[in-house]
Prior knowledge:
Order of helices and strands: HEEHEEEEEEEHEEEEEEEEEEEEEEEEE
Amino acid sequence: MKKSTKNKKAFSKLSFIFVFFLLVVSQPVYGQYIGCYKDKPDRDLSHQAGQYRDITPEGCISICGKQGYTYAGTQNGNQCWCGNSYGKWGKAANCTRSCNGDSRKTCGGPWANSVYAVSGAGQQPSKSQQQYKQPSQTQISTGQFLGCYKDGTSRDLPTQVSVGGKLSTEKCLSACGKRGYMYAGTQNGNQCWCGNRYGKLGSANNCNRKCEGNSSQTCGGPWANSVYAASGAGQQASQAGAGQQQTQGWSQQPSSQTSGSQIVFNNWNKSGCSMTGTANFNLNNPAQVTKLQSWYNWQGSQSTVQYRLYQNQQILYQNVLRKGSCDPYQRAWCQAIDTLNLQLQPGNYTVMVRIPRICQNPQSSNNGFIEVHGNSSSW
């Protein structure tokens, strides 16, 4: 009898060790691809981290990891979703969309997530794994040539600027640097483009056009940018005026709102809506933003919704949008408004709401409706 009890204890101990071993071995590691899984309106991964023009698997993994989630999912080429569980709708077979940020990689499909393990799913990322960061000032210097890169109708560098005369490399660098952009691209001998990321369409080999303003220089080619580090690459935005608290391109203004506010960005239209959790906008000049206004599907007695304003995946500001005027025939669709006083530098921004019910449609390029009001002496 004693021998039988002793054997049972030994067997139980071995079983525990075996199960523990299986759990450790099967634990996914940071960045590991898990599979393609179905999504539905009742989301498989519960948190939408955003809709990005330049998303990659590495970028989504980094975003979800920083927010403390265990899994990341890229969807439909431009969306990033996060959560702590996955697979409640089963596996999918349509994760075939190329990533907006890297056409060589796949970022899910329509209602399908390419799911990855992020930090917290077994281990934290090493420094070498913490990707999706811009080069620091020590990595590149102002004016450094970075290469020849393809362009397309979905622009690699999103903002075209005037250089005030015939094009040269120095004029484009100066124009982009003064507007706070990190990278400048000369194209086809006579165009200057600016942005904070480059290379999503891959390298090119046809940067062979002479600059119209300096025939000794090369200024890209047809649908190809000669890309340079602009003044400001790797640097923070220039200092704001007295009394402003500068933080990575924005500042909370203590002064009162100035007069003459105008619409500086607007992508609204009258077509029907589907819903999203994000709305992206771009500023070409520094602006004192006084109002953000979206078109939102309100539920029941809901009158406010929390939101955050991001730039380069960093939270700049957070507050609530308040219910405004409504559609007389579809009473759930109403304005969502915040009056504020922020000094924003040129660049791309994302408004992300806690409950994803912002209007979007193909006419807005499937970007959430957003209208931005502000003041700038540059307009």
